[in-house]
Amino acid sequence: MTDVSAEVAPCWADAELGAALCAVAPAVLGGVVLRGMPGPVRDIWLERLRELLPAEQPMRRVPLHITVGRLLGGLDLTATLSAGHPVAERGLLVESTGGVLVLAMAERAARATVAHLAAAIDFAEIVLERDGLSRRTAAEIGVVALDESLGDEEHLSPVLADRLALCIDLRSLGIHDVGGVDFDPAAVLSARARLPGIAIGEDQLRRLCGVAQSLGIASLRPSMLAARVARISAALHDRVEVEEADLVIAARLVLAPRATMLPIPEETDDQMPQDPPPPDQSEPPPEDTDAQDSAEPLDGQELEDRILEATLAAIPANLLARIKAAGKTMRRAQTAGKSGTLQRSHLRGRPMGSMRGDPRTGARLSLIDTLRAAAPWQGLRRSRRHDAMRGRAAGSAPRVLVNRDDFRVARFKQRSETTTIFVVDASGSAALHRLAEAKGAVELLLADCYVRRDQVALIAFRGHTAELLLPPTRSLVRAKRSLAALPGGGGTPLASGVDAAMMLSDVALRRGGTPTVIMLTDGRANIALDGTQGREQAFNEALEAAAALRVAGVRCMVIDTSPRPHVNAERLAEAMYATYLPLPHADAQTLSRAVQEVGRGAGRSADAGS
């Protein structure tokens, strides 16, 4: 227990110091990335920050699914319709000016929310250009992003993380690791008063930039934020200027969590010069004026080395492994999909705002957005109506005057249907083994199709042509019946099989689906498209057909079914920009897992190839 406490105590000390630094000038630092799951430790930290902030500074929470109107402000629809002229309402950013916003579940925040928060941090103002309103309002805020990421698939948006100076990790802390209090609100107020008079030297800035460069930090913003943290640290510790301890704090809390590499030593052990023999202690050291003159640059280098050493002590031991995993996650996130690609729809799916349109075309009318578009013009329209009705019989005027341009229709987004197309080489003596594996994989995949709404199709090529044995279906009974009498033997018309997959993929694309082609073959084509024999011509035609799949943007996987990996199968995968998987001893379970990974986008995206 003693060893664990010794390791954890500095973590809470840094967390408490971060709360005090943020309380001094939240808008100057941008805010804090607070990593950790909901629990008493995180609640204590947030309560500590609330205690250190002055009473007049608000601390508000930002819901995960907050609307743009509530965040930025906009038209107060009820007041506008009652008053007959535009009435604006204040957004959450304006209401929290001078204080702190707590962003819950920041790793899942919408892009629009992240963009507006980043703009407010950069420019300290809100530009409102919507609903017939045009205004600029000051909004100096700090953001506490609550990062609740569980694994490598979730991460905080780099756009927001790059603008928040402090990074505090509470995941390794328990309730028993929470220590005492070192700062009070009076110290925070005193630090605020001293902060404008504290400057950081040019040499100190150079040292911080050198440490950032040694840690592989490409952005310049962390170095600027580290300089601000050093100034605030000096003010908080009642210093008149930035000292070495302040630079160490800045590097530990700002630069260390952003490190992407470990520093490369300038010299190896073999290249380092040998130490000179120790001087004779009986004789006084000689006075060397040249050495005294060159002491200043050496002191600067020693300062940078000390800062870097203190920063390395704060870097987690598994830094490189986490960075590598994060890179894989970002690449996977660019092509991942649960059941297909996202598409826009006018009838069903997840709402994604509204647009100007005519509801008579079949789209759904967005009543609130329609009234919001019509509200700013009610005063003008009523005066025009009054002038037009002058001299006529008086009638009851409608409460809200709506024109054709005011109509707004709802927009939705939904995932398209995924069709997994198996293209099986049914030729040769090994066909029975490969077909049995394909049958088992199709049956296993169909069990998931009921949940993911996927379809499965099967194409077999043998002899001189390719044949569609199983059209796209979700029916398990129909799949078993079609697979029962799967034939085998004969030549290898590889080009015909690729062409058949291309035609079926084109049908799925035209219907708005997302096709995925899985080819099981050894790549040893010997039958051309015209039915003649010839390995070279047959393989060249197969490569041309594979290039068409690549241009169409279809995700593909080539499973090499040879006893040993064959170069033809690998060349075929390169031609269609597919994932190549040598699998000489595949079973149904292994094949099913590989196909599911490709269906989720684990393979290379065909869009990148095109």
Characterization of this structure:
This protein has four domains: 2-181, P-loop containing nucleotide triphosphate hydrolases (Rossmann fold, 3-Layer(aba) Sandwich), CATH 3.40.50; 198-263 and 300-336, no CATH class; 344-384 and 401-414, no CATH class; 418-609, von Willebrand factor, type A domain (Rossmann fold). Helix 11 (221-236) crosses helix 12, helix 18 crosses helix 23 (588-599) and helix 20 (494-510) packs parallel to helix 21 (535-552). The longest helix has 23 residues, at 2-24. Helices cover 45% and strands 17% of the residues. The strands form five sheets. A six-stranded mixed beta sheet has the order 15-14-13-16-17-18, sandwiched between helices. Strands 2-5-8-1-9 form a five-stranded parallel beta sheet. With 610 residues, it is α/β, with parallel strands linked by helices. The two termini are 57 Å apart. A hairpin with a 2-residue loop joins strand 14 (455-462) and strand 15.
Count the E strands.
18
What is the share of helical residues? 40-55%
Poorly predicted segments:
1-9, 267-274, 285-298, 324-340, 602-610
Q: Please name the CATH topology of the largest domain.
A: Rossmann fold
Query: Count of helices?
Result: 24
- Specify the structural class: alpha/beta
Physical arrangement of strands within the biggest beta sheet: 15-14-13-16-17-18
CATH H-level homologous superfamily name of the largest domain: von Willebrand factor, type A domain
Radius of gyration: 33 Å
Q: Write down the CATH class of the largest domain.
A: Alpha Beta
Please give the largest β-sheet: 6 strands, mixed
